[in-house]
Amino acid sequence: MAAGPLFNFALAALSSQVTADYGITEGQYGLIITIVFLLAGLSSALLGNLADRIPVRVQIAVIFGLMIAGFLVSISAPTYAALLAAAVIAGPAQAFANPVTNRIIAGTVPPEKRGAWMGWKQSGVQFGLLFAGVTVPFVGGLAGWTGVALMCVSVLGVLLVLGWLVLTRMQRARTTREPVETGEDAPVPEEPDSDGSSAAVTGAGAGAGAGERPAGTDDPAEDPAQKAPRPRVPLPPAVWLLALCAFLNAVGTQGVNAYASLFAVQTVDYPIELAGTMLAIIGVLGIVARNVWGRIAGRVRSAALLIQIMNLGGILAAGGLIVVEHTHLVPLMWAAVTLHAFFPLAANVVINSAVVASAPAGRIGVASGLVAAGMNFGFALGPLVMGLGIDVFGGYTPGWITLGAVYLGCYAVAVALSRAGRRGRR
């Protein structure tokens, strides 16, 4: 989850230097981020479906491999076109991250613990923002974007090796344990969760006895009946409403994330290192917030109510940033980004917890892919809205107003989600 958005986080942390070094406008900079998420959104539905079918280790290798390739392409030539080409490569890598991690949680974590696990999982994104905010401005100041890209390639390479080793160890432990627990002599497949139905049902069947395997999770090679195609269960309305919530919330959060550093440099005259530190602090606050909200989501039945509260925080944050542009009040800027980090930026953990709870067994990847598509299309639109507002109107206020209106729309969708949930329980 940290690797997927590292390219755009690195660009955001170095945004003022990138726009100056490459001779591009704020709108052109925003277009790079937009292309990343547009490609991620277009890829999400397909890759979410693949997440239910191909081995987890392969998916992890694809995510890290594409990100490494993207960074290397970005420094293949000192041109804006190279940055755009890198964005095209980085987009699909982001699309894979959410479905595969949701699938891992659905297949290995008991339902009562998924909220907390989802909080840590979604915090990976903020760890990426923290890493970029702490390191990129200083490395960029010494070696420019080329130095930043090479640093990120090195870190991603190390994480790929570590991730592969951890997943391999988990696989071997499960392969050794399952025959003893189930009393079966048949060999366990190399990737026991390589079909989405087993991943979804394992989580739902966490309460099964130690000697039982939940229905529908037997190895297809052992049961010929399992090879027959299963009828597809339609996704419930709640999943579609959650996808819309993810889209609208993402417009607001990525609009702020992409331009917060540039806003601080241009509005309150922060040096790039201090602006990067602000991004790092947003990352820390986001980690804390996502774990707090993840635990709350594990205890509160109404995800819709939590989403409403979080979007009200986003509206307040957007209002604060509007005032900052005209008053240059630094404390108010910090209050606004704190609201942003603790409320709307953490909504993803609640949305993803609700998706895992709402999706039918065997369609966790598909539902997660749909929600990831909505989220990524929102991430694509947010920077585009902000960049166009700055280029056309010469200031940030029109963009902040638009983001506030989008948060209000997300609040309205969450109200509809709450009503749909009440009708479903009747």
Can you walk me through this structure?
With 426 residues, the protein is an all-alpha fold. The chain has helices at residues 6-13, 15-22, 26-51, 56-74, 80-108, 114-182, 196-204, 237-267, 272-299, 303-327, 330-342, 347-358, 364-393, 397-425. Helix content is 79%, strand content 0%. It is globular. The two termini are 37 Å apart.
Fold topology:
Elements: H1 6-13, H2 15-22, H3 26-51, H4 56-74, H5 80-108, H6 114-182, H7 196-204, H8 237-267, H9 272-299, H10 303-327, H11 330-342, H12 347-358, H13 364-393, H14 397-425
Main beta-sheet annotation: none
Ranges where pLDDT stays below 50 over 5 or more residues in a row are 180-229
Q: How many DSSP H or I helices?
A: 14
The CATH superfamily turns out to be MFS general substrate transporter like domains
Pfam family, one: MFS_1
Region (Disordered): 175-231
Transmembrane segments: 30-51, 58-75, 148-167, 239-262, 274-293, 305-324, 330-351, 363-386, 398-417
Biased composition (Acidic residues): 181-194
Please name the defining characteristics of this protein.
single chain, globular, mainly alpha, Growth Hormone, Chain: A, 426 residues
In short:
The chain is mostly helical. It has a single domain (6-168, 233-425), classed as Growth Hormone, Chain: A (Up-down Bundle), CATH 1.20.1250.
